[in-house]
């Protein structure tokens, strides 16, 4: 039985592959978070808008995204969506890092659908009298949301949003199915090239665990310093 070769994880070509995959996984998670949060906020407000048509747009977005597995989203944006584009544009996209772009699009839409429901729950937890009072004072729907409701609701939704961030971090591993050279992809490459599967996947497991524990620690810190107070 082979012994655990720690040197493979500390230096050399395989170490570089694993570290580059780890860095790309972090980039995927951060870029997705930057785009998913504003989109989730927009969808949450749409779902509570006074116009039925706007509410319907929000409902269709959430249900269409949440009821399809992330793997299907990933494959659709990489293999399916480009087929409806003009040939020149498709070739231009494939000459660039289209795998990573497809993964980000799928992750942004998937994460935003779940985050929007958390934000909507936070908004609905604010007493409706506050909205009525804001409208009576002359605020528009968007003005009341922006200045009165959302600042309170977002504070309440920080814990579930942190949980969604944890899910997002783990979901970045799905990007390997379309060839994105993230952490799991690189771990598999190292295993194929060196036949050192234990070391390569131990590195990936440790990396996922380290970031997940950091996110969990951030959640615990927030709970400790900003406890939810009953109304």
TrEMBL record:
It comes from the Bacteria. GO terms for biological process: amino acid transport. Pfam families: BPD_transp_1. CDD domains: TM_PBP2. The chain crosses the membrane at residues 20-44, 56-78, 98-115, 136-154, 197-222. PROSITE patterns: ABC_TM1 (PS50928). One of its GO terms (cellular component) is ATP-binding cassette (ABC) transporter complex. Keywords: Cell membrane, Membrane, Transmembrane, Transmembrane helix, Transport. This is Glutamate ABC transporter permease.
């Amino acid at each position: 039985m082979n012994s655990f070769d720690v040197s493979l994880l500390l230096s050399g070509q395989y170490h570089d592959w694993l570290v580059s995959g780890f860095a790309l996984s972090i980039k995927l998670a951060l870029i997705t978070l930057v785009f998913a949060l504003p989109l989730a906020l927009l969808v949450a407000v749409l779902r509570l808008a006074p116009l039925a048509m706007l509410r319907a747009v929000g409902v269709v977005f959430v249900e269409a995204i949440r009821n399809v597995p992330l793997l299907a989203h990933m494959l659709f944006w990489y293999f399916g969506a480009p087929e409806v584009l003009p040939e020149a544009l498709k070739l231009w996209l494939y000459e660039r890092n289209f795998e990573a772009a497809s993964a980000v699009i799928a992750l942004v839409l998937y994460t935003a659908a779940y985050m929007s429901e958390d934000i909507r729950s936070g908004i609905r937890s604010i007493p409706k009298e506050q909205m009525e009072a804001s409208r009576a004072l002359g605020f528009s729907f968007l003005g009341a949301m922006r200045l009165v409701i959302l600042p309170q609701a977002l504070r309440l939704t920080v814990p579930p949003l942190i949980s969604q961030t944890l899910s997002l971090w783990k979901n970045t591993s799905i990007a390997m199915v379309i060839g994105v050279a993230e952490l799991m992809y690189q771990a598999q490459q190292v295993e194929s090239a060196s036949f050192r599967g234990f070391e390569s996947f131990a590195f990936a497991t440790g990396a996922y665990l380290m970031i997940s524990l950091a996110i969990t620690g951030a959640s615990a810190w927030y709970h400790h310093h900003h406890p939810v107070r009953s109304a």
